[in-house]
Each structure stands twice: as C-alpha cells, then as structure tokens.
Specification:
Layout: H1 3-28, H2 32-41, H3 47-52, H4 57-75, H5 86-99, H6 105-115, H7 121-138, H8 146-167, H9 175-188, H10 191-196, H11 199-206
C-alpha cells in the first residue's frame, strides 16, 4: 500500500471517528467515554480511537477545528468572493466557520469548556489564531507588517463574541447572530484608523503574539 493510500485511509478513519464522536457528545460529553462509545457504534475496537487520536479528546478538538477551518478556505476559494467588499468577505467567512459546526452546537460548547481549562490555554490560543488567520487568508489578506497581527487580533474578538452569541441563538436560521456579527464588524472597521495613529504601541502589543501567530498560509 502506497504512502498516499495510507494517508487517505488514515484521514478517512479520522473523519469517520470524528462524526461518530460528535454524535455521542450530547449523551456522553466530550471525553474518553465519547471516544469509546463512538468505537462501539462503529463496531471498532476502542484501541482504534487511541491509534487514530493518540492525543485523546484534545486531539479530536484540534482535528475538528481544522476540518471547520478548511470548510472556510474551500467556501471562499471561488472568484465570486473577490467581488465582495472586505467586510462582506469577513462576515461570510465567520458565518461559514460557525455553520460548519452548526449540527453539533453542544459539542462546540463542550469544546469551549475544554479549551477554557488552564492546561489548554495555549492550545485554545493556537486554534483561535488558526481560525481567524484562515478567514483573513481566504478573504485575500497578504499583509506581513504590523497589520497582520492587528487584523487577526480584531477578528479574534469579533469571532469569539459572535460564537458565544450564536451558541444560544434560537432565531430562525441564526438571523440574530448574523445581525450581531454585522454590528461587531461595523464597529471594528472604525478601529484601524485609530490604530494607525498608535502604530508603535500596536506593534509592541502584538509582537509577543508572533510565537502563537506565525505569518504563514494555513495548511490545507
């Protein structure tokens, strides 16, 4: 079996197990029991979960976030996206990212709880960066100066607050969440001009984030 075939088989198993795990979260929580229950539902030996996700639940969350981020990159790859204004591209990216997990909002809630634990703080920061960077990259941002960091820091705030609002949104087709998102983006669009007057300060604030937020294209 070739390496490409092995990689494809491993990826298929990760996706298969992820789907089964997410289905178990409302009943078992986001923990080792969910992984065991998922294997049982697929008639797999529980050791398969350990082989597929050796990092346990944390690795499942990492992988799931990557799948959702890739959904953003795929959805925004079409030429029609380039015709939108920047704020429209960003709004589309955030909506796409949230809707990629809409079927499993309870699992999103549990994942946030997991990432809120002190031992997972670095991981939470890394995953948030990866998401906002994917959205900005898909929106066409190729900045490499201090704007790279300020844009992602601002979007991290917009994305995080919108995510929390969306988790409890009971409106039809999340209409309230999208209205909330549009208001947040409108407010944030006023900030870059103000930051330009404080460029030196912004650079000092954002430079330490470099170890978490590398300037590179998201891995697809």
């Amino acid at each position: 079996m070739s390496q490409a075939t092995d990689a494809a088989a491993a990826e298929a198993m990760r996706q298969r197990l992820l789907d089964a795990i997410l289905a178990e979260v409302p009943f078992e929580g986001l923990n080792a029991r969910a992984l065991t229950a998922a294997c049982r539902s697929l008639d797999l030996d529980p050791v398969e979960a350990e082989i597929t996700f050796p990092g346990g639940v944390a690795e499942v969350v990492d992988y799931w976030c990557g799948v959702c981020d890739q959904a953003v990159l795929d959805a925004m790859a079409g030429p029609e996206i380039s015709e939108l204004k920047v704020r429209q591209r960003i709004a589309f990216g955030v909506r796409t990212r949230l809707m990629a997990a809409a079927e499993h909002r309870e699992a999103v809630r549990r994942a946030l709880g997991l990432l809120a634990l002190p031992q997972n703080a670095v991981m939470g920061t890394r995953l948030l960066y990866r998401t906002v960077d994917a959205i900005w990259w898909a929106a066409g941002d190729r900045s490499t100066d201090w704007n790279f960091y300020s844009k992602r820091a601002l979007l991290a705030g917009v994305y995080s607050t919108t995510l929390l609002f969306w988790l409890d949104d009971k409106s039809d087709e999340f209409a309230d969440s999208w209205a909330f998102l549009d208001r947040r983006i409108a407010n944030v669009m006023l900030i870059p001009g103000r930051l330009a007057k404080l460029r030196d300060t912004a650079e000092r604030v954002t430079k330490p984030l470099a170890k978490f937020w590398p300037q590179k294209r998201p891995v697809s």
